[in-house]
Amino acid sequence: MIFNLIITLLALSLCEGKRYDGFMLLRGLPASEEHLEFFKNVTKNYDVNVWQPPGLVNRPVDFIINPDHAEMVKSEARNKNIPLEILHSDIQTALDNQTVNTYSRRNTKSFNFNSYYRANDIVNWMMDLKTQYPHEISLFSIGKSLEGRDIMCMKIIFKESKRRSKVVIEGGIHAREWIGTAMVTYIINELIHARNGLRNQKLQEIAYHYEWFIIPIFNIDGYEYSHTTDRMWRKNLRGGHGVDLNRNFDAAFGTVGVTLTDKQSEEYCGPKAFSEPESQHLRRFMQSTSKHLPISHYISFHAYGQLFIIPYAYTKKHLENFNEMKKIGDSAAARIKKRYGTEYTVGTAFDTVGYMAAGVSACWAKKTFKIPYVNVFELRDTGKHGFALPANQIKKTCLETMDGLMEVLKPRRTKLSGQDDFDEDQPDGQAMTTLNGSVISINVFLIWLFGF
Ligand SMILES: [Zn+2]
């Protein structure tokens, strides 16, 4: 009896990993450059985990802080008249509400969107779906993670499909953003049931219109680590410190919003572009996927902030078909709002969060493969729970985001308005070359697509 108890306690302590008892989620609102400097120092000098880094004046800075340090920081902020708000008084209690379910094999219907899942359960569910829908689904690994886990991609094609172009959907590049992975599994679930879904003809049309390539847990090592060891883990597992995979791609690599030297930083981008096996695999996968039939959409799921982010994250400029994407983003945001009133902000990273980032996968994909429709969804919420989004918000998040996604994926039969979309906010001469290149390539793509 005592022996059993000891074993149970041992198992529990092994499972639990790092805890955040008493950690407060704080939000600062820097009103000046001096305030920004204060927050930069706080994130460096105290035991904090940054959720929204300091960017621009009047943009919120979110972080959780060790209770032993909280009073010090709060009083320092008070003395300097810097507004600091407590968003959550004990983040561990919120994390405890992130129910993690286990999936029972060969019962795909039991997989639900009222709880989160471990990587193995998600992969098993995908394998069971493939068994159930062998004609529509193929499942393959795009390569192995640093720790040797397979990064799985599900390809879905319906026989009714018109196969006009390809859609690539990527989730879970940041480990702790569990809602992103949940959302991508929801998309799989919706698509595969679209055929028997008389309830939603629009979804069916969209499902048949594309070839689908869906990667729900891109950073699978990090995702598992965020379940077993540290819920706040963001990067891959390189050398104990990790590399931010979403800064490791060749899109202005290493230039803005990253660090090349501070390995402990959440924005450590690695020594060079594609230094990590995970990003190398995505590069190879995209190179082969972009052949034959063009990729028209690349969509990446993150949390949090309720943002529809349009490339490019490494510049303040609105490049290429930004104006068209802004229109699409605005209608997606309107659709999202319609269901539960959730408000989204649309724009580039700089427009929406106030900071820039280089090496982002979506920017690299758009730039390299001339993909016309690329965006990042930063899902719920705006900071009440942040990464600790409770399990009872998963379903709602999925439903509203699917509404928005339908707008993005709406088959577009009209030609891109071409030059009109490209002539505002023109960048410098060098970028102009890229600009013209993209116009040509998108027009070629449309000729192929719609036979203009
Ligand atoms: Zn992210």
Structural features, described:
The chain is of the alpha/beta class. Helix content is 40%, strand content 16%. It has 15 helices and 14 strands. The chain has helices at 2-16, 33-45, 67-79, 91-96, 119-132, 178-192, 201-209, 220-228, 277-289, 322-340, 349-353, 361-369, 394-409, 419-422, 429-450; strands spanning 24-28, 48-52, 61-65, 84-88, 100-101, 116-117, 137-144, 150-156, 165-171, 210-215, 295-303, 307-309, 345-347, 373-379. Mean pLDDT is 89; it is low at 7-14 and 414-452. The chain binds zinc ion. The site of zinc ion has 3 residues, from loops.
Distance between the termini: 76 Å
Number of strands: 14
Morphology: globular
Q: How much strand content do the residues show? A: 15-25%
Uncertain residue segments: 7-14, 414-452
* Topology order in helix (H) and strand (E) letters: HEHEEHEHEEHEEEHHEHHEEHEHHEHHH
Strand order of the largest sheet: 7-8-10-9-11-14-12-13
Helices, strands, pairings?
Blueprint: H1 2-16, E1 24-28, H2 33-45, E2 48-52, E3 61-65, H3 67-79, E4 84-88, H4 91-96, E5 100-101, E6 116-117, H5 119-132, E7 137-144, E8 150-156, E9 165-171, H6 178-192, H7 201-209, E10 210-215, H8 220-228, H9 277-289, E11 295-303, E12 307-309, H10 322-340, E13 345-347, H11 349-353, H12 361-369, E14 373-379, H13 394-409, H14 419-422, H15 429-450
Parallel strand pairs: 5-6, 9-10, 9-11, 11-14, 12-13
Antiparallel strand pairs: 1-3, 1-4, 2-3, 7-8, 8-10, 12-14
Helix pairs in contact: 6-13, 10-13
Bound molecules: zinc ion.
Zinc ion is lined by residues 174, 177, 302.
